[in-house]
Design a protein that fits this description.
It is a single chain. This protein has helices at residues 5-26, 54-69, 74-88, 115-118, 121-133, 143-151, 163-173, 193-208, 231-243; strands spanning 41-45, 49-53, 181-183, 216-220, 223-227, 250-256, 258-261, 266-269, 277-285. The chain is an alpha+beta fold. It has two domains: 50-173; 181-285, no CATH class. The chain has a six-stranded antiparallel beta sheet. Helix 2 (54-69) packs across helix 5, helix 3 packs across helix 6 (143-151) and helix 3 packs across helix 7 (163-173).
């Protein structure tokens, strides 16, 4: 049957809509750089700009937090983020090439752990950093060479194309950039009140581990407060909170003289003097 141009165009649109998601995954192991999958947006600015959806942003923040709590330098976090961008586009995948799963597409058959373990972003990130740390001289290697020593990919140069994006993310998530992570969260919150606060607290403890003990974490029914020693630490936690806002019912975050609000997704100057405190990160959830 001969298709008219209009029908042919419609077919192409449908194929693109249905097949684009699968295509994005099938190319993740190739040498081709593809756009990141975008849903509800988070914009990260710090010596550049990267746009992610809220799930990708939360995974990036977790990878960074695990690296910081392990005492890894920022370059290690860049390597980890570039690797996850290439392997999964920062999505916690259920499958992949052969038995590969998770953010880093680690394989149970190659000794990375069980499928359930690897699907835990914190476990996967820990395993990646532990393997990277064993690579002699990784600190002086190109991003792609350091990643390849861990991953042993069929596309050893593919990680380098994500180095700039990974550097922007690491700059923000390690706290070197100010008000750098801005996520817009609209619609009804997934959690409210004490349940939302508990989700935030549990996530903080899981990602930051014993490192969180160095802060003064105070939990209330409507939110929490983190005591910090310096601006860098404050922005690490503030950016982590915003990165995880979509799944936790977070309404606003305040640090120093700036405040982020979920619906508009922007950092704005604090308007009341009572709220300005450079030693506290304050987070409030939807009631």
């Amino acid at each position: 049957m001969r298709r008219t141009p209009a029908v042919a165009a419609l077919v192409l649109v449908l194929v693109a809509a249905l097949g684009g998601f699968a295509l994005s995954r099938s190319l993740s192991h190739s040498g081709i750089k593809i756009p990141l999958v975008i849903g509800p947006e988070c914009t990260v600015r710090g010596d550049g700009e990267v746009t992610l959806d809220t799930v990708q942003m939360a995974n990036a923040a977790t990878i960074s937090a695990v690296g910081i709590r392990r005492g890894m330098p920022e370059r290690a976090i860049v390597v980890a983020l570039a690797t996850a961008l290439q392997e999964s586009k920062l999505e916690n995948l259920d499958d992949g090439d052969r038995d590969s799963v998770g953010l880093f597409q680690q394989r149970p058959s190659q000794g990375w752990g069980t499928t359930d373990e690897i699907k835990d972003p914190r476990y996967a990130a820990n395993k990646f950093y532990a393997s990277l740390k064993r690579v002699k001289g990784w600190e002086k290697m190109r991003i792609t060479d350091a990643a390849q020593k861990v991953q042993r990919s069929a596309y050893p140069n593919a990680y380098e194309k994500w180095a700039d994006e990974a550097s922007v993310l690491a700059n923000a998530l390690t706290g070197r950039a100010t008000a750098a992570v801005a996520c817009t969260v609209t619609g009804a919150p997934v959690l409210r009140g004490a349940a939302a606060t508990a989700a935030l607290t549990d996530g903080l403890k899981l990602d930051w581990g014993k490192g969180l003990a160095r802060t003064k974490l105070a939990e209330q029914s409507a939110g929490l407060t983190l005591g910090v020693d310096n601006a860098s630490a404050g922005w690490r936690y503030a950016h982590w909170l915003v990165s995880h806002a979509s799944a936790t019912g977070l309404e606003w975050v305040r640090f120093a003289d700036l405040e982020w609000h979920a619906p508009d997704g922007k950092w704005q100057p604090v308007t009341d003097d009572n709220g300005i405190d450079e030693r506290k990160v304050i987070a409030e959830v939807f009631s």
